[in-house]
Amino acid sequence: MFQVALAGLIALTQIVLAETNSKAEEFLIEFNRRAPLEANVKEVASWKYSTNLSSSEAAAAFKAASLAFDTFFEEAKRNASQLGNVEDLPEEFQRQIKFIRESSTLKDVQKREKLASLKIEMQNIYSSTEVYDQTTGKNLSLFPDLTDIMASSQTFVDLKTAWQGWRDAVGPKIRQLYKQYVELSNEGARDNGYTDYGAYWRSWYEVDNLPELVENLWRDLEPFYKELHAYVRYKLAKEYPQVKGNDAIPAHLLGNMWSQSWGEIYSLVEPYSVNSSIDVTKAMQDKNYTIEEIFRITESFFESLGMKKLPEKFVERSLIRKPEGLDVECHASAWDMYVKTKGGKKDVRIRQCTEVNDYWFVTTHHEMGHIYYFLLYWDQPYMFRDSANPGFHEAVGDTLSLSVSTPQHLVKIGLLDNYVEDKEADINSLMKMALKNVAFLPFGYLIDQWRWSVFEGKIKPSEYNSEWWRLRTSYQGIKPPVERSEKDFDPGAKFHIPNDVPYIRYFVSHVLQFQFHKAACRLAGFKGPLHQCSIYKSTEAGKKISEMLELGKSKPWPEALEKLTNKRTMDVGPLKEYFWPLDLWLRSQRCSLNYKIGWPENPGPSYDPCVVPTTLPDTETSPVNNQPNDGAAHAWYLVLIAVFSVLLGC
Ligand SMILES: [Zn+2]
User: Domain 102-289+300-305+384-650 carries which CATH code?
Assistant: First the structure.
């Protein structure tokens, strides 16, 4: 009797399960049919607006398309919730449904509209603000005018004027809007069960301890950053009497509007003046390179790894130079339009105001990394058409850049003519890479530290600017060249803040790209120091990279990472290994020249630079548990109203 009842119960359970299964399958088939179409409408509207910012019709159409997409998604979320318990469904269904159920969309429709308007308004202020130049009577744009001044001028006052001009023009206009944006974004997150909007952002990483995890990665890298900072400060002090040997560096002297990448001051800090040139910009200009050629060379690197050619007319569909007479958002970005063109080609695009120089050469590789990721996970279900975690997306193109930037590769493709390989040229080349990649690390870390605290309410609106500068000084060792107050809003002068784009992904990607690089070099059979490796033409490396990218978001990121690296944790070891010769060189410089390290707000480290370690850093240690948690929320998809699938340069 009992056995009969049990058999009946099992049969009933199986019927219920089969029903839930088929309902879920039906729902997902319909969702995966519609979602790319709905997303495409929004992407097209966003593209049109961002390439014609002064058109009020384009702005209105974009806002309408954003809200329509939100409505579609809210409906999908409701339907997904009605499926009830999905624990017994296949893992692939469960994961999609879990993602669909998560969002930070406001329940109140009017507030949702208000938030959409706020984002567009901030985006518009950032993109269209210009700075009046009193000496020439002209208005200066951020790109290329102010950016060029920051990169090329070595006049203290001119740099200060450009630095302050941009912040004074854009910050205060955004400040009040930002406060409202924080309130409404938090409300949306709380409507969906998150403590605040920052917690919602962090949930995309599928780990419980993201802040702890990145803090530990940073602490491991900080001593090297400080060596670099100390040397650069020592060199800058020779150029500018305003730079003090034991203080934070004035923020406007590092060749970049946000002091986030210091490559432009390479000539001031060059370790050795040797005949051997690693000046790619000069080589490109000497050889009359065109923007189209930069794109062609970049694509050919991906092809050399065995990846397919880009879809026909990719460049024509993209926007690759600043157009005359049109107001365009120039911040580099890569776009997945989600559906094929009428001609049956996958519609992916790059939007950037390219110029012929080293910076854009590297940026084009970065953006094209996004494009190849889009193409490789194209056939995944909609919710899996994203990177394993947001840092992965940013790391792909940059991984290739590590190969492309080696002098050995640049010689091979005819971009460096008179490079002679020796120890001094090697250190010069590493210094150039460190100014871009290592200088970036504390910046990449602190932006979202500031925002996480703002969303959590630990930083009050009355402390927005002072706390921003506390972090900037503490982590980066820089200080504002003029007094700042709470009338200013310097965070608003950085694209990703008014544009609602999370930033910790760039820190994560700067760690991951060296892990990817090391694994790819091993697959390419490279023997030698990591910083000299190029994976050009290695189809073995290309195959494993593709396998990782094809997964999209279908598996937790440690699985994707394992495909290429055989490791499941993030690890700064490869980054340290890559720069190890430079780290040793910097210590020896400090030992012999006896300059200071650290600054009052962040003193140390206290080790003796004259005691030089002789072994490579241990690349296998990884003390932090960065395995994903099972129960974490997985909502990564609505990279919200303003930018959505668009992936941007840092
Ligand atoms: Zn990017």
Answer: 1.10.1370.10
